[in-house]
Amino acid sequence: MKKCFVFAAVFCLFVFAGCAKEDETETIELRLAEMHHESHITTQADYEFARLVEEKSNGEIKVTVYPDGELGTADQNLQMLYDGELDFARTSPIKFAEFSEMADILQFPYLFRDSEHMWRTVETYIIPRIDADIYYHNAKLLACYDAGARNIYADRPIETIDDLKGLKIRVADSEKTGVFFNSFGANPVVMDYINVYDALKAGTVNGAENNFTSYYNSKHYEYAKYITKVEYSRVPDILVVDRSMFDALTESQQNIIISSANQASLYQRSLWQQYETDIENKLTSFGCVITEPSQDFVSKLRECSNLIYSEYPNYADLINQIKSIQ
């Protein structure tokens, strides 16, 4: 009788073990590519996104963030995403300019009056159209991150538009930005972001254009300590996902991804302004010279931007619509 009891217990143990094994859910491992350093506020938002996804899915979905361009350049990351070899990428919408009219328009300088105008226009008018445009390139837009305003910095003071003449300034791979910098006599040099520090160190370029956060976190100030707050461009960063992977998830899993991305976006944007203020104070303590441009300087830059607008008459109606948004 005792043997029968032992046999029954062992049998039940195997049955329950088998059931438990069948009920085990395999973890979905996903990768997110980031160009910024791990200390960058945008990268911190990536980590928050990953944390939220894992928490909300009870560990069923795990996102690993790869900062500092560990998975390649921004262009390589996007190609990987198009090919279904990468799950998420934090990038600029301008990277989609070749097949999205709205993404292309974001390249125009002085397109927005201020930060509030930019967010109203981007969220209600621009981003939905970019998302529709990238659908057939295996990408889906999940959320926007604040990227502040782009300024110009160099290894020498920039107080007038004449100070920019002849300077080799690194710019992103953007046709409109290149035309803008050429219009006032600078020499724009297209270069991937991760290579800018070495180029500044070697003197291959005199300076670059970017927001305060990138300038600080990438230590560009070590070789270009003069930064002028021209705020000529405002383009939010975006978090995109491999659409084929996303579509293969359950509706519940998709909702977790979307809600986590939205929360990470709000988290990042809530911290950005104070973060930039703190950075400006640190840069000043490091001996950097932060210059508020004169009205004359900004007016001349805006005149140059108007010349660029005239070169693209096919965008005139859309640009007027954007500028009229209150």
**Structural class determined from secondary elements:** alpha/beta
Number of strands: 11
Order of helices and strands: HEHEHEHHEEEHEHEHEEHHEHH
Give the CATH H-level superfamily.
Answer: Bacterial extracellular solute-binding protein, family 7
Q: What is CATH's topology name?
A: D-Maltodextrin-Binding Protein, domain 2
Distance between the termini: 86 Å
Q: Ranges with pLDDT <50 over ≥5 residues?
A: 1-23
Helix amount: 40-55%
Indicate the proportion of strand residues: 15-25%
For the record, the CATH class is Alpha Beta
The neighbouring-strand order within the major sheet is: 7-6-8-5-9-11
Mean pLDDT rating: 90
**Major sheet characteristics:** 6 strands, mixed
Radius of gyration: 24 Å
Give structural notes.
The chain is of the alpha/beta class and 326 residues long. The protein has one domain (27-324): Bacterial extracellular solute-binding protein, family 7 (D-Maltodextrin-Binding Protein, domain 2). Helices cover 49% and strands 18% of the residues. The chain has helices at residues 2-23, 41-56, 74-82, 101-105, 115-133, 175-183, 196-202, 212-217, 243-248, 251-285, 295-310, 316-324, and strands at 28-33, 61-66, 88-91, 139-145, 149-154, 168-171, 187-190, 207-210, 226-234, 237-242, 289-291. Helix 2 runs antiparallel to helix 10 and helix 6 (175-183) crosses helix 11. The longest helix is centred in the last third of the chain and has 35 residues, at 251-285. The protein is globular. It starts with a helix and ends with a helix.
